[in-house]
């Protein structure tokens, strides 16, 4: 990485929404707190930070360029536009894995509802983007799981062409909507680091410090 300019860091955060009709959607409990904390930590060490965020009730961090998106397709487009120019991608967003196959243009009345909904998969943003990763780019993913957290994380690390993955539990009492987190950071070469349990702000600082140290070595 060039020492003559700030590291350019792209971060995704929060949930996405997939619409059934203009007033109903499916989503998940992601608050965006982890991604926003990482954006602040990266900014604080002098990185130039861009944040692509799903719908959250959080203010844009000072000094961070933010784009708000809603659907997985919106987020994929925003990330693809920015990825070629970034040095580090950290994808914390909890993207809906599915969307209704049919989206109605108008609110469906209760009497007209179909009580069985057919879904189709959404794009795997991380896998799609990381497939074009250059040797000088670092890609970090998050694995939010309710069981066998480390095993699933290691599988995603290799399947999605990542450099690091942050394994964290979103079982009852886990990371979703909490102010605290505990991460197992796993590198593609097999190295591991436990970050937390601590506040998401502190975990974010530890993560960015680890990545900064790694970038100094490559």
UniProtKB/TrEMBL annotation:
InterPro entries: CoaB-like_sf, DNA/pantothenate-metab_flavo_C. It comes from the Bacteria. GO terms for biological process: coenzyme A biosynthetic process. GO terms for molecular function: catalytic activity. Gene3D superfamilies: CoaB-like. Residues 8-213 form the DNA/pantothenate metabolism flavoprotein C-terminal domain. SUPFAM superfamilies: CoaB-like. This is DNA/pantothenate metabolism flavoprotein C-terminal domain-containing protein.
């Amino acid at each position: 990485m060039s020492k003559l300019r700030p590291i350019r860091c792209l971060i995704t955060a929060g949930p996405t929404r997939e619409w059934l009709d203009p007033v109903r959607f499916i989503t998940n409990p992601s608050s965006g707190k982890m991604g926003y904390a990482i954006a602040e930590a990266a900014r604080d060490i002098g990185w130039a930070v861009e944040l692509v965020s799903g719908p959250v009730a959080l203010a844009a961090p000072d000094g961070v360029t933010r784009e708000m998106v809603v659907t997985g397709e919106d987020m994929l487009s925003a990330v693809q536009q920015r990825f070629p120019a970034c040095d580090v991608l950290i994808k914390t967003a909890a993207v809906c894995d599915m969307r209704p196959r049919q989206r109605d243009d108008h609110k469906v009345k209760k009497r007209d509802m179909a009580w069985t909904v057919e879904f189709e998969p959404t794009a795997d943003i991380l896998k799609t983007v990381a497939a074009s990763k250059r040797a000088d780019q670092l890609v970090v993913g998050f694995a939010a799981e309710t069981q066998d957290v480390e095993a699933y994380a290691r599988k995603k690390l290799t399947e999605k062409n990542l450099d690091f993955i942050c394994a964290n539990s979103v079982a009852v009492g886990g990371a979703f909507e909490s102010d605290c987190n505990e991460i197992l950071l796993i590198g593609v070469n097999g190295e591991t680091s436990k970050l937390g349990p601590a506040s998401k702000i502190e975990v974010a600082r530890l993560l960015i410090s680890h990545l900064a140290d790694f970038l100094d070595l490559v």
